[in-house]
Each structure stands twice: as C-alpha cells, then as structure tokens.
Amino acid sequence: MSEVLTLATEVLVIGGGLAGAWAAVAAAREGADVVLVDKGHCGTSGVTATAGPGHWWVPPDRRETAVADRLQRSLGLGDPDWMGRILDLTWTSLPGLADHYAFSTDDRGEIQHRALRGPEYMRAMRAYAVAAGARILDHHPALQLLRHGDGSIAGASGIALRGERPWTIRAGAVVLAAGGTAFASRLLGSATNTGDGLLMGAEAGADLSGMEFTNYYTPALAGTNMARSMAYSFARWFDADDRELDIPNGPDVTPHLARALLKGPLFCRLDRVPDDIRAVMPQVQPNFVLPFARLGIDAYGERFEVVLHAEGTVRGIGGLRVDDQDCQTAVPGLYVAGDNASRELVTGAISGGGAVNSSWALSSGQWAGAAAARRARSTGARATDLAITTGRAGLIPRRDVRPVDTAGAVQAVREELNAYDKNIFRQGEALEASLARLDGIWKELADHGRAEGRAGLRLREAAALVAAGRWSKAAALARRESRGMHRREDAPGLDPRLSCRQRAQGLDRVFTRFEPAPAPDPLRAEVA
Amino acid sequence: MIEVVIEDRCSGCGDCVEACPSDVLALGEGGKAVIAAQADCQTCLLCELYCPADALFVWPETERVAGVTAQQALASGQLGAFRRDHGWGEHAANRTNQHWRMGAIFERARLQAIELAAAKAARTEEGSST
Ligand SMILES: Cc1cc2nc3c(=O)[nH]c(=O)nc-3n(C[C@H](O)[C@H](O)[C@H](O)COP(=O)(O)OP(=O)(O)OC[C@H]3O[C@@H](n4cnc5c(N)ncnc54)[C@H](O)[C@@H]3O)c2cc1C
Ligand code: SF4
Ligand code: SF4
Question: Would you say residue A418 has pLDDT above 70?
Fold first, then answer.
C-alpha cells in the first residue's frame, strides 16, 4: 500500500452534506484551520443534493405558535428551547448564502429563502465553505476516529479512494456530519450514507438516542429511486385490479400504502395534480419528471406502479445524542451535526422531513463547527501527542482473519430494516428475531473481518449498517408502546410512562435505557 | 444507472469524474470519461448535470443495467434534458429555478385533501339520510 497521507488541522469535519458544509463555514469563520473530508463529493453527495429542502422558516412574530404546535406533535420528546434556537438561526443564516445561491423572488417580487433546490444549494454550500477558507478533500471517506489517552478526540483516519491511499488527519476537534442511514435502501441520494458516523461515534464512546424511530417511508415509481414526495400528495391509489383504494393523503399515509403493498402491487394516478403545477414541475423538481420522461410514462395520464423506499434514520429520527448546547457528544472534542445526530430535541417522535431536519442540519452544523473551532483554537491540533485508534469491527478483528460475507451482511440489513411487515408494523417477537440475526452477523464481522482499500471501506460500511440496525431493533423492542412513527402492533397507543427519550449504546452487546421523564407524570405516581 | 458516455461529445474535462458521489467515473486512457464502476452507480443524475457537453446518459432504473447504446441515447432526445431543466450553463436565461413554489404546492395538495374529505363526508351523509 502507498504512503500514508498525514495532515494536522484545528478542526476536521467528517461529511460534506448540508450539516458538514455549514459546520465548515462556521468553524472557518471562527478563524480555525478546517479540513472537510467526504466519502463522495461535497456538493453532490448526501440526501440534500438530490432533493431540495424546505426549511423551518418562520417570521419572528409567528414562532411562538410554530413551536407550540410542533411541541404538541412531538409527543413528549421535543424541547421548545432547541426548537426556538433552530428557528432563530435558520432565519439569520440563509440570507448569508446570497453570494452563492440565486434566491428566487415570488410573483410580488419578494425574495424567497425557505426552500432551496438541492444541487444548487449544495453547490453553493461548497463555494461558501471554500470562500470561508475550508480545505475540502473529496472521495476521502473516514474509517475511524482517533483519541488521546485522556479520552478526548484526536482526529480520524480513512482512505483516499483514488489510489486507495490511507490518510490520517490529526485535529483539535472533530465534527461528525456523515449523515443518517437509510439502511441500504434505494432512497434517492443516500448511497454513501451507511451509518459510518454512528459507528465511529459509538466506538469512540458516544451514545445514541431515538434509534427506535426509523420507519419513515416514501413512495416512488417502481424500479426507480425517485423518492420526491410532493406530487404524491395529490395521488389516488389503486390495487392490481384497478380498484381505487380508500387512502386519504396526509402525514399518516404510509401504513395504508404498506398494507396495500403487503397484499400485492400498488398503483398510483396523479391525475389530480392541477394543470398549472404540471406545467411548472420540470422547473420545480427536474429530477421528479425525468424517470417518467425517459421511461415513456405519462405521469399525469396513466396509472403506474409504485413502491415505498425506507428512509431509516434519514427522515426517521435517531442518531448520536448531543450532550450540550454546542452539539458536543458525550466524548470531549467530538461534535455531531445533521442527520448523524438524533433530532428528537427538535422533532420529537415524528419525522422532521419537510422543514425541521434541514433547519437542524444548518443550525447544529454551525453550533458544532463554531464550538469545535473554539476548542481547537485553545488546545491546538496536539498533533505530536500520542493518539489511539478506536475502530474495531472490520479493522482489528477479535479472532482469526477470514473471509466474511460483506454483501450478505448488507442484504440482511435490507431484509430486517426495510421490509414493510418487519419495520412498519412492529411486534416484539419479530423484533427479537431480527436482533438475534443481526447480532450473529455483527459477531462474524467483528470477529473475523479485515480488508484493505475499497474492500475495507465496504466492510466498514457493512459493519456500520449492522450496528445501526441493532440499535434500532433493540430500541424498538424496549419501547413497548406506539408513539409517533414507532408503531407496535402488540402495544398500540401511548404509554404515558414512556413519555421520555431512550438512549442506546454498546457494540458487542447492545443495550438501551430510558431517560427520566422531564416532569413528574401524575399517572406514573398512580402506577407506583 | 449510468449507461453510456457519448465519446464524440466528451471533451475530457473531468468534471463528471470529480462530481460523482459514488466514484463511478474515471478518465480513460484516451482522455475521455469512462464508466469504471457501474455497479456502484446510485442513479443520482448529477453527472449529467455537471457535464457541460451533455455527453452522459443515465437510465432511471436502479436495479439493472439496461444496456442503452450511444445511438439510442442520442435518439432519445433526452441528452442534456436534465441540465436544461435545471437552467445550468446556456439554459440560465430561459429556465428559471421555480423550486421556491414547493411550499405553495404542498399547501394546494393539503387543501385538496380537505375538500375531498368534506365531499366524501357529505356523500355519506346523503347516503345515510335517504
Ligand atoms: C428526498 C428527501 C427530501 C427531503 N426533503 C426535506 C425537506 O423538504 N425539508 C427538510 O427539512 N428536510 C428534508 N429532508 C431531510 C434533509 O435532506 C436532511 O435532514 C439533510 O440533508 C441532512 O444533512 P446531513 O448533512 O446531515 O446529511 P447528508 O446531506 O446526507 O450528508 C451526509 C454526508 O456524509 C458523507 N459521508 C457518509 N459517510 C462518510 C464517511 N465515512 N466519511 C466521510 N463522509 C461520509 C456523505 O457522502 C454525505 O455527503 C429530505 C430528505 C430526503 C431523502
Ligand atoms: S448517476 Fe450519480 S452515481 Fe451514477 S455515475 Fe452519475 S454521478 Fe455517479
Ligand atoms: S463532464 Fe462530460 S465532457 Fe467532461 S469528462 Fe465528463 S463526460 Fe466528458
């Protein structure tokens, strides 16, 4: 293998999607030296680049109502202070992107900041980060974190895909912004998001939260990945015999569609999309119209088959737990942002897709970036201090090295975490069986897996997917109730005693525990 | 899945190679873009967007290689359509970014659903009173 590329910097940002790019901007603005590494290309990879997020963009006089409404829907797991903070920062940050993003004006000439189109947004974020002084290394996936003897974070190591050259970057602080994971489904834009940031964080000592909330799904034309949901909010749904199904559109449509899909093929008609919207669609969501145009399907005239794509933690909720106002994890010097972090504080038990997630990515990215910069500026890169590797599965096998079935592991994760019956309509026994299967695969990978170069990356990705799948199943098993998107067929309805967030951790053995409920609950007292 | 590079159009600028998030593309020995790792393609379409020469063609199916040839791609009339709809490069003047309308479109759908539910309720009412 060729010589190791070695660098020292004040702040290292891992992941150059929406959150990582905002983190790089904020860290550089504090005057820190910043290196950002992405597995893909900062500007095109991640789930923002292929979509187009609407932010939680609310004028100051309407924020109190917006927070109160969201808090109620968060079903006891949200935090109004964090909601207020992301509303403020979204409002003050987006206009600053005007040098790089051509904001549109509406029919009255007012500048529109709320929704930015993905490819243009991420192209602008890259330019913004570069203009702020960040150094970007594309196609440089991180494989593991490094820590000091005192437990604080010392940097990361990974591999440059071109030439398969290993790299080590020492840093005074690290921001993990490697996205959520859709558990290897075909969700648009999610291929590089294999949960690496969750695994790396957990190996370094961070814990997770909200991992039971991983069952948000989005419809797409069958055979494609085009999970753009807007047009489907006008859809009519049909079974194989072309009988129209009584499925009203709205936030709770998924279980209905999944039930239909468990019976047979599901079809859709978009004939209720108004003409003026059809006309403008190619310029609103150019990628939505493309598969229809190429496959020769008249999207608004004929019926077509649809599937649901699993979104895992992406428009689900769970991730590494933020431990303070700066988005630091439980590990000193390790910060987390965007979908790599749990979004329960701002979304509670329902999806933050549609507004809250992007505002969280923008805000948590900036808080994490700025705090990482402040920390690193005071400690320096400590590049000559001893650093210890933290990565295990796929890097340092516990037993003898032998070939492991990486592709089979990924396929098992798909089967256990994407299947409609197992993941949408959850039951204790099935969750236990999934967990046992994934535990077995984890053991195999951790005991025997080791590979170099690209194969090494694929192995680490598989390990991360399996680890994230285990936390998700364990958390779903322990939350014996139905709350928000988490739905237990064997425990319908809310259990007031579980109106609190649940943490998950552990690699060789996975365990979870509920946080104490924020306020004393009258019912709880009654039960006791 | 990325299907084909139209060699006659490719200038060898390398923009697609840099932009591909899954590291599928490379510059070949002849200085033109080549599909080096087709199975890794995630059908994100962004190489098409970043290619100023409209020399790349992505087929929307994710699970299989469709085997589209350069001739078929040229005949489809779809080469460059994605970059055109995005209003990049020479299309900037006549294709504006209308993405900001997304919020209002979702709102129209929400109102339509409410109307439909009300109409349905009225029908059931009528049905039960006759
Ligand atoms: C179709 C769709 C539509 C959406 N619409 C909305 C919306 O309207 N409103 C809203 O609020 N939210 C929306 N969301 C959610 C929103 O897009 C995400 O919350 C946001 O993109 C999160 O940003 P991120 O930076 O955390 O993750 P991403 O943007 O996914 O970026 C993660 C990055 O990490 C990189 N990476 C992964 N592993 C590694 C590694 N080992 N080393 C280095 N880099 C790595 C990836 O390559 C990627 O670039 C939508 C999501 C989808 C899928
Ligand atoms: S469609 Fe996306 S993943 Fe496939 S080659 Fe093009 S840029 Fe790469
Ligand atoms: S971007 Fe287009 S012109 Fe440039 S190398 Fe790629 S295919 Fe060729």
Answer: yes
